[in-house]
Input
Amino acid sequence: MADLRAAAEELLPETVDLRRNLHRHPEIGNDIPITRGIVLDALERLPLELNLHETTSGVAAVLRGGQPGETVLLRGDMDALAMPEETGLDFASEHDGFMHACGHDLHTAMLVGAAKLLSSMQGDIAGNVVFMFQPGEEGHGGAKFMLEEGLLDSSGDTPTGAFAIHVTSWFASGTVNLRPGPAMASSDEVRVSVKGRGGHASSPFAAVDPIPIAAEIVMAVETAITRRINVFDPGVITFGSLQAGTTNNVIPEEARLMGTIRAFSEETRAELHAIVERIATNVAAAHTAQATCEIRPGYPVGINDPDFTAFVTEAAGDLFGEERVAPVESPMMGAEDWSYVMNDVPGAMAFLGACPPDLIPGEAPMNHSNRVVFDEEAMATGVALYAGVALRHLSR
Ligand SMILES: [Zn+2]
Ligand SMILES: [Zn+2]
Output
């Protein structure tokens, strides 16, 4: 295990170079050809079977060990966000309006590092490692497309374990943070349209004003959550958009709401869907208006397999010392399409602390901030952790 750390440290300069190259060229969505090209170049001399996916820019690279055994899957996501970068870094984005603000450039570079490290020990590995380079995590469901295109058949054997790392400035650099069970929320979008009857603002009695009805729906949904949802299995609905009307003296015909629905169990998720649908249609009906409610399902709840999580915790403790491994107290409200993979394979996602040493974890600009910066030294921890978890899983 100490060897893995040393080997990962040795790879750090090239891991940093690769990360900076990716950082300069952020791309979003499922079609990210420049990023895929950079990754393929970096993997070029390694003894890997490369499966280039066709529905997305995903790559599933297979390392076959020298001895037979199970298959383990390691994942790094590769996509960026549509937002301007304001970090002032000398390797800042060269694509205007796009930024690697979630650290996926670090994930990709770390996964390449792990592929190099494990390739160097190919003969001693009992089983196969699938390196999943995934596009479209930020709301585009890239993981789902890769699953549909046969990700889990990449080596010929379904993986028996799956592991992902996410960097965050939330935790001290080089710490490994995870929790068993629900770790990340499901995320669905809701759109409500309230149809009333337009008219003169001076005479609301002769119209059906959709604006107070929309406001009442928002308040009634928030109240229902406190009354209908089990406090020990929480959920959130936030309406982030309420749009109606054009001027001060006209009652509009329609008001529109858009919101997000988050939960940590499928039960609460279904209950939240029912609440918003029931309240929207019935509150509108009570005021002689009509509401339609459309729910667009997004990522499912991210559930870390308890046994696999305990196993990763143990592996990380052996690698870096127990003082660098911490349980995450509560789940994160963020969502991840890694949950699709964890629905099919026992697995876990660990948060790798990457807060720069001169900033304070929790106060530093966070993931998705236009000013977020990550400590690149943490990537040595990530490379060793990917490799350590894979080796340990295959030699159980
Ligand atoms: Zn993100
Ligand atoms: Zn992310």
User: Anything to note?
Assistant: The CA atoms of residues 242 and 257 lie 5 Å apart.
